[in-house]
Amino acid sequence: MRPESAMPRGGHRSVPHTADLRVEAWGTTREECLAQAVRGVCESFLDLTGAVGDRRRDVVLRAERDEDLLVALLEEVVYRLDTAGEVPVGLELAPVAGGLRADLRMADADSLPVTGAAPKAVTLHELHVGHGAQGWTCSVTLDV
User: Fold this and answer.
1) Under the phi-then-psi rule, with left for phi > 0, alpha for psi from -120 to 50, and beta for the rest, what region is 70?
2) What is the pLDDT along the chain (144 residues), one digit of tens a residue?
3) Residue 91 neighbours by CB distance under 10 Å
4) H or E element: which one contains 15?
5) Which residues contact 67 (CB under 8 A, 6 or more apart)?
6) CA separation (Å) from 126 to 24, 139, 144?
7) For a disulfide at 88, which of 25, 69, 97, 104, Cβ 3.0-4.6 Å?
8) What is the DSSP string of 36-91?
9) Sequence-separated contacts (24+) of 112-116 with Cβ below 8 Å
10) Residues whose CB falls within 8 Å of the CB of residue 85, separated by 6 or more in sequence, listed in order
């Protein structure tokens, strides 16, 4: 899934998808790959250039499967956007027993330039998280 020209480090890209948002991400670790997916989703609707998080949210997500961790992480992003009007502009993920700890650095979404439609929900359609010889890859579709 990683573009041939990409560096071995992490990255993400939006993929054309009818009426939805589809993001593919990659990284050398599972945590880097999932963090890139979050960044890709947030960059799909806001310009994060120069954005600085002025508050932190520490969240522990539990799931047995990596796909479920990705869904839980992105659902947290959508929840924070809907309920508090905030978006992660930086994040660090660390493995914990049975899941992930997410250190989210948040900014007010209203303070950032809007570039697209905000996501409303994470779907399970063609959800993928996997590890191969080139590192970790994931792909996810969100309703906008």
Assistant:
1) alpha
2) 444 444 458 999 988 777 799 999 999 999 999 999 999 999 999 999 999 999 999 999 999 999 999 999 999 999 999 999 999 999 999 999 999 999 999 999 999 999 999 999 999 999 999 998 889 999 999 999
3) 22
4) strand 11-15
5) 127, 128, 129
6) 11, 7, 16
7) 104
8) HHHHHHHHTTB--TT----EEEEEEEE-SSHHHHHHHHHHHHHHHHHHH-EEEEEE
9) 112/46, 112/47, 112/48, 112/51, 112/87, 113/46, 113/47, 114/45, 114/46, 114/47, 115/43, 115/44, 115/45, 115/46, 115/47, 116/21, 116/44, 116/45, 116/144
10) 108, 109, 110
Tokens (6 digits) for 143: 């309703």
User: Looking up tokens 């010889």, which residue turns up?
Assistant: 133
In angstroms, the CA 10 to CA 137 distance is 9
